């Protein structure tokens, strides 16, 4: 079973929305962010976490021809 994924939304007093996506390794988080941006507006900045640079082991497939 895949790990837990979380999306945290922070709204400042001036209406700025910040999104923090946790539990998704690799660039999959940016796909989610782009989908959210279609609904909530323009992305003014992006800060990648260490999870972005990790490999999602469930997507790695080793294939051997016999």
Q: Which key phrases capture this entry?
A:
66 residues, alpha+beta, two-stranded antiparallel sheet
Descriptive report:
The protein is an alpha+beta fold and 66 residues long. The chain has one domain. 20% of the residues lie in helices and 18% in strands. It has 1 helix and 2 strands, in the order ββα. It has a two-stranded antiparallel ribbon. It is elongated, with a radius of gyration of 15 Å. The two termini are 29 Å apart. 3% of the residues are buried.
How many strands, what sense, and barrel or not for the largest sheet? 2 strands, antiparallel
Element-level helix/strand string: EEH
Helical content class? 10-25%
Helix/strand-derived class? Answer: alpha+beta
How many DSSP H or I helices?
A: 1
Distance between the termini: 29 Å
Determine the strand fraction and express it as a percent band: 15-25%
Number of strands: 2
Radius of gyration: 15 Å
Query: Ranges with pLDDT <50 over ≥5 residues?
Result: 59-63
Instruction: Indicate how many domains the architecture comprises.
Output: 1
> Which term fits the overall shape?
elongated
Spell out the blueprint of helices and strands.
Elements: E1 6-11, E2 17-22, H1 28-40
In short:
The protein has 66 residues and is an alpha+beta fold. The protein has one helix at residues 28-40; strands at residues 6-11, 17-22.
């Amino acid at each position: 079973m895949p790990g837990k994924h979380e999306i945290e939304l922070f709204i400042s007093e001036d209406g700025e929305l910040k999104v923090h996506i946790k539990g998704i390794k690799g660039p999959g988080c940016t796909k989610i962010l782009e989908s959210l941006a279609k609904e909530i507006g323009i992305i003014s900045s992006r800060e990648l976490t260490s999870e972005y640079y990790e490999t999602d082991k469930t997507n790695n497939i080793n294939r051997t021809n016999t």
